[in-house]
Amino acid sequence: MIRVLQISDPHFGTEQQQVVEALLRLADELEPEVVLLSGDITQRARREQFEAARTFLKRFERPVLAVPGNHDIPLFNLPARLLNPYGNYRRSLGEDLEPEYETDDLLVVSLNTTRPSRHKDGEVSPEQVTRVAGRLRQAQPRQLRIVMQHHPVRAREECDVENLLHGREEAVPSWVDAGLDVLLGGHIHLPYIWPLYGSEGEVGRKGWTVQAGTATSVRIRGDIPNSVNVLCYDNSGEHRICSVERWDFVYAQDRFVRAFVTPIELD
Fold first, then answer.
1. Is residue 71 predicted with pLDDT exceeding 90?
2. Residue 27 phi, psi (nearest 5)
3. pTM of the entire structure?
């Protein structure tokens, strides 16, 4: 069984240290192959917040891939937002804003959907759509094919429609047709799993969007606790098998507890 840990929206600067420590203990327990961080790493893109995030990510002691969220671009420092929007991000977390990870069993392709010209909305360019689709077509048949970005492509709640990724109408069918299995996102602090369809609609190939809540921040949404997702993948048999586990932080137990397990179909 291969495990992939998805964390999102930790918003360093508003993190709860008790939850941070519990998340690190969960990773030690589950031993995921890779940790994927789908944006909003900081609250206000300040240098000390990125440094705190860097220290946190190093403690996983395993590969970590991250992409920026809209909070990872300066909001009030307008010169930095216009001239060097990812300066603090790159200083602490590295130059690559769209990292990849590949093994015999996994392919993870990520993209930066933030835009300094937008306040909070995300956008995918035609060039990004083409690049990701091309990379997915190169995947091996037994790989779990994951795309990670910050902004959602489907809304469960009507109030979240305004948060959906600009360009999703072209991107999602193209990626599903190219072999996408799972599209990871964050941004709205609401965890859910919904199907995605290719150019043939519901009669054709299907993928899944897996949204994550806030991993460690006080900025929880409604009654949804801090949570993370764990993708469990098995390709040892005739069919590829995958399930998504949602782990919620329970204060009374001072730990993350598995709350839901959702099997997903892989075409």
1. yes
2. -65, -40
3. 0.96
